[in-house]
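Input sequence (382 aa), recorded before submission:
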Amino acid sequence: MGEVVVTPVAGKAELDRFIRLGARIGASDPNYVAPLLFERHEALSPKGNPFFQHADVQFWLAGRDGRDVGRISAQIDHLNPQTRDGIGHFGMIAAEDDPDVFAALFAAAEAWLAARGCRTALGPVNLSTNEEVGLLVEGRDTPPMFMMGHDAPHTGVRIEGQGYAKAKDIHAYVCSVADDLPGPILRRVRKAPAEGVRLRTLEMKRLDEEVRTLTGILNDAWAGNWGFTPTTEAETRALASNLRLLIDPRLAWFAEIDGEAAGFMILLPNINEAIADLGGKLFPLGWARLLWRLKVKGPKTGRVPLMGVKRKFASTMRGQLLPFQLIDAVAQAARKLGYERYELSWVLEDNLPMRRICDAGGARIYKTYRVYEKALQGKEGA
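Predicted structure, token format:
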């Protein structure tokens, strides 16, 4: 075999190869779901993703003997508190099971990060900590929910072979819609709300305002969490645009305390369930199949990617009950709509308050993703 050559992605054609390579690497796994090509192009381009407004990003392709054999990204998010500690991120890792390919890819990414002052490489992060985080290390027996990874089984071993070690594990919990909360909790939740507490569904007519409210709660509730990056106004607008196509207001709930937005929970349909056999393509018939499966047949699975309670309320009696009130409200609505199960993700291994909520609500860990790190001292780059 010839030498592995790593080249930066410099145009649309190379970006398309970069995207399609991930699907080719995963194609032999029956549980892999190819993401929609148009969505990946949007997520990985400055025109489509506001993340690029506050981050430096570079993609690479590894080639050998005229064919693509691997890919990787490196990025420095200037809004992420980790950046102040000299941490840069790698991501989008997908490659054939060859140590030489992984060595060449990581050499390029690490040199790029080190040349920009980073002392530690952390990942995979694809591309933001508000998007996809971690490498799947447990739970390969089921397909991933949307915006969750499903990596080739050799990837973790090859990353560790480049000197990386575990930094943090994050979990995905699964919950049956048919199961109510445990009796003692359910009795408290089903009582009349405490004075000043109000639960309501999202109002689609003012979606932009609702998403701004959601973002404010999110940025407050998750502030200080490991790896969290606050969401910008541009990202909020993009989120509102994306949610408009997916959200069912019956599955999006806000909690208010004394008239102030205090918490929220949103269940989104698991798009992967509807696109699993489309191979990432919506033309010529993919659009019709997707719409029919989402709007007529109806999804059976969903994911809760966003949930939080403002910190000022989290330690109060009224605030501590809000997560369970929101879970019960969403679960009751999902049950009526024909959902069977949903995922709560992602949850840091040391986020004990959230893990207690998941455990108390009857959810169980069914997938684990790992974030790796490596010191870059002494690296040289250009």
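Checked by second reader. The chain has a mean pLDDT of 93.
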